[in-house]
Amino acid sequence: MICDYLALRSYFFWRSNNISVYDPTRQTFRAMPKYSMRGVPDIIVIKEGKFIGLEVKTKSGTLSEGQEYFQELCMKHNAEYHIVKSIEDVQAIGL
After folding, report:
1. Which CATH number fits domain 2-92: 3.40.190.120, 3.40.1350.10, 1.10.10.10, 3.40.190.290?
2. Among residues 43, 53, 47, which one has the least CA distance to residue 73?
3. Dihedral pair phi/psi, residue 3, rounded to 5°
4. Is 85 exposed, middle or buried (CB count within 10 Å of its CB: 0-12, 13-18, 19+)?
5. Which long-range contacts (CB under 8 A, 24 or more apart) does 86-93 make?
6. Three-state SS across 30-51?
7. Among 38, 95, 29, 49, which residue's Cα sits nearest to residue 72?
8. 6-52, pLDDT tens digit by residue?
9. What is d(CA 74, CA 32) in angstroms, rounded to the nearest whole number?
10. How far does Cα 55 stand from its chain's mean position?
11. Phi, psi at residue 71, to the nearest 5°?
12. For the chain, what are the domain ranges?
């Protein structure tokens, strides 16, 4: 729903899937590629040259350790990082 909202508003964004692929032959998850990061936000928006990370959570959802680290990096580098649970949350941050 949030991606549909962003698309209707013509934002430049993408949905990021950064979960390791399961290898049924080895019955384990494959290693993440070199230089990939855990905790990358679910949705990345570029607005007026600014990086905005949107981590989508359920009402009771919490950040993983990797997501907390990514949030810290965003704050350190003057990028935005928001935890959103609804379209209303996205609107409240100015999108």
Report:
1. 3.40.1350.10
2. 53
3. -65, -40
4. middle
5. 86/2, 87/1, 87/2, 87/5, 90/2, 90/5, 90/6, 90/54, 93/52
6. CCCCCCCCCCCCCEEEEECCEE
7. 38
8. 999 999 999 987 777 888 888 898 888 888 888 999 999 999 999 99
9. 21
10. 4
11. -60, -45
12. 2-92
| β-sheet with 80-84: strand ranges across | 12-15, 43-47, 50-56, 80-84
pLDDT tens for residues 57-91?
A: 998 999 999 999 999 999 999 999 999 999 999 99
Q: Retrieve residue 40's tokens.
A: 């990358």
Predicted model pTM: 0.86
Amino acid in position 47:
K
Residue 27 burial (CB count, 10 A): 7
